[in-house]
Automatic annotation (TrEMBL):
May play a role in septum formation. Belongs to the ParA family. Residues 1-55 are annotated as: Disordered. This is Cobyrinic acid a,c-diamide synthase. Transmembrane segments: none annotated. Pfam families: AAA_31. It comes from Streptomyces hawaiiensis.
Amino acid sequence: MGGSVHCEPEVEESESLRSDANIAGPMTDPVPGPRTESMGADVSRETPPPMDDTPIGRAAQLAVEALGRAGEGLPRPEQTRIMVVANQKGGVGKTTTTVNLAASLALHGGRVLVVDLDPQGNASTALGIDHHAEVPSIYDVLVDSRPLSEVVQPVPDVEGLFCAPATIDLAGAEIELVSLVARESRLQRAIQAYEQPLDYILIDCPPSLGLLTVNALVAGQEVLIPIQCEYYALEGLGQLLRNVDLVRGHLNPALHVSTILLTMYDGRTRLASQVAEEVRTHFGDEVLRTSIPRSVRISEAPSYGQTVLTYDPGSSGALSYLEAAREIALKGVGISYDATHAHIGVQQNDPSMVEGIQ
């Protein structure tokens, strides 16, 4: 680069950083992935750029801290925790929560399997897993009793993370399952026969309460319900809770709602705070202290076949999912969650950074 440095691109980039719907000021680099910023000809490549003086520097510092915390490791459960991520209301961040929590738990050192039970296959797409019609999938496991080990694929970007993909064939599985023996427990049997060691299994359910979701509820031990911090957030939740009670009473006595996660939290709106307060009042300790912000980065990541953890590790969404995973892991082994060190290096009174942590 020449001796003169133009400032205009820098200004444009800073302005573009404000596009995140839940950030009051600039925070993250608009282009995903690690990269270095040229500081001009008079600055040596050996000289580290200032980390706190610019939006890019702050984002880089957050990314380094996030990945550092992800590598710390967390207590591993004594036995596999099978968590069913369900909410019959669409658009609440169910699939997004499944894949990003799974990636976060894997980055924390766990071995995690995502079971994609949604015929749309969005979880498979977000994890970068091929799921065209000819790929062995969870459909073959449910309908043809194929071993789960034959359909599980490793996720390319995250060590310790695996996926049993969904294909379009799954759209007809509800009808085909009706005539099969033990139609409600076919997924449970497949998981029990799976011999690879796992710390967590996260099951992404379709936004309905049919046989696919029932299979997930029979196979699982815990139900994780994402709730968006918007109007009508609790609409339809009563029916899901009644179904959980029915499955617990007749098919799976161990099933219980263990976790409520607030998603799409916009700290600038009074409505988000009111919804969060209402949910916390109703569900109490089941609600995680960490909430997930409304973030452009979270929305963009699946189109690149990535989770937000690899797409933009310094973003507010990535940091919040890492904290949510940490809280879930500690809660599972009976350790009290301490949010004191959440978002290390961030000023707690900076609304642009901590909107995901309440």
